[in-house]
Write a structure and sequence with these properties.
alpha/beta; five-stranded mixed beta barrel; four-stranded mixed beta sheet; 12 helices; disordered N terminus
Length: 383
């Protein structure tokens, strides 16, 4: 069976625009809230954090290839992670791995993928999906992606907003706007505005109102539209990206990357593109009614492992030796050291060869401050 046949088996009557869809997986960042498990040389997308036996990156690949096809998935990652990414994804073609010489945030990563793909295939529709998210109900996920592709084909930048299940304070929110009359995308809406991470009372109000969705930073758009919108606020960045794209498939790539990449502005795509597009009425949202988590901290992993019950002790690690009595939370270990817990609730224990973290689920978000302190103190050997 050919890759094309595998891709479209069971597709049914999906719109023709899906034929021009290309999935982009930005695989960057170290996941500092998951230190000391996640490190610069082994970021969180290269770990199995769900107990499935697959890394987050491989799970992302597995849910996108049935929609786009193996030959139409691009991964943007750091040079240091090339070997690990290729080992995880043997179906990834060499021309579809884009290496960053240094991290420049999501605008440069996604924008470069868009510029390369538009240069190769004018009119291509791209979708950006982070390498380190956990998603359930793949049928509903696919349905949301297909609707977003249809909306993108009409010239909008589309995002998939997650229907919230609780008043989470670790995510940004999207306020729903008026409905869009786009055939093939019945649930699509305009975005009224983006909202930064709220406090708990505000988040409760958002969820109770039914007017807000979680911002999962999934963006689907024609590549040329993305670059045009980005150029309105960041023209120098787009000029650099287009220059890189023109040289990408030529012998001049290395020299141009060395010359251009260091000078690119470091900015998140939410600020450079999504928020300005929303203000201009050019951003649409498709509600995603499926389970989603960005695995932002160890409390998130504990919830995933316990199925959301919040009362069990989750244990991750092939060699884990844990003895627990009346305890809950999570233990993550890559050693064979015996870990004993007695009468502790919502504990977080992360045991690695050179660092030990002990905190609670309540304070799991504060792990990032430890990483920042280690950087300031120059103790980069454990980062």
């Amino acid at each position: 069976m050919t890759d094309s046949t595998m891709r479209w088996a069971g597709r049914g009557t999906e719109p023709d625009a899906v034929d021009r869809f290309y999935a982009v997986i930005p695989a960057g960042g170290i996941g500092s809230r998951l230190w000391p498990l996640s490190r610069a040389d082994a970021p969180k997308f290269l770990h199995d954090l769900t107990g499935s036996g697959e890394t987050l990156l491989k799970e992302t690949w597995d849910r996108l290839t049935p929609i786009a096809g193996e030959d139409r998935v691009m991964v943007v990652t750091g040079r240091a992670h090339r070997a690990a990414v290729e080992a995880q994804l043997p179906g990834l073609s060499d021309r579809n791995i884009v290496l960053e010489s240094e991290p420049k945030d999501s605008s440069a990563a996604i924008g470069l993928a868009a510029a390369i793909l538009e240069h190769r295939e004018p009119g291509v529709i791209i979708g950006s999906f982070a390498a380190d998210h956990v998603i359930g109900d793949l049928r509903r996920f696919r349905q949301a992606v297909v609707e977003a592709v249809v909306v993108a084909d009409q010239g909008y930048i589309a995002t998939i907003g997650i229907v919230p299940t609780e008043p989470a304070i670790g995510f940004g929110y999207i306020k729903r706007g008026a409905g869009l009359e786009v055939e093939g995308a019945p649930s699509a809406l305009l975005v009224d505005r983006f909202v930064e991470k709220p406090d708990l009372d505000t988040a409760r109000g958002y969820v109770d109102s039914g007017d807000f969705l979680w911002n999962a930073s999934m963006f689907i758009t024609r590549a040329d539209v993305l670059l045009t919108e980005m150029a309105k606020t960041k023209p120098d960045l787009v000029r650099g990206l287009r220059r890189l794209a023109e040289a990408w498939d030529t012998p001049d790539r290395g020299a141009v990357v060395d010359q251009v990449w260091p000078g690119l502005e470091k900015i998140a795509i939410d600020y450079a593109v999504a928020e300005p597009a929303a203000a201009a009425g050019r951003l649409a949202v498709v509600p995603g009614d499926f389970s989603w988590d960005d695995v932002g901290d160890f409390a998130s992993i504990a919830k995933l492992q316990s199925g959301g019950r919040g009362s069990d002790l989750a244990i991750l690690g092939a060699r884990a030796r844990v003895l627990a009595d009346s305890s809950s939370g999570i233990v993550v270990t890559d050693s064979d050291r015996l870990i004993t817990l007695i009468g502790v609730d919502n504990i977080v224990v992360v045991d690695t060869q050179d660092a030990l973290l002990v905190t609670t689920s309540e304070h799991a978000q504060r792990v990032k401050s430890v990483v920042d302190a280690l950087k300031l103190s120059g103790r980069t050997d454990v980062l």
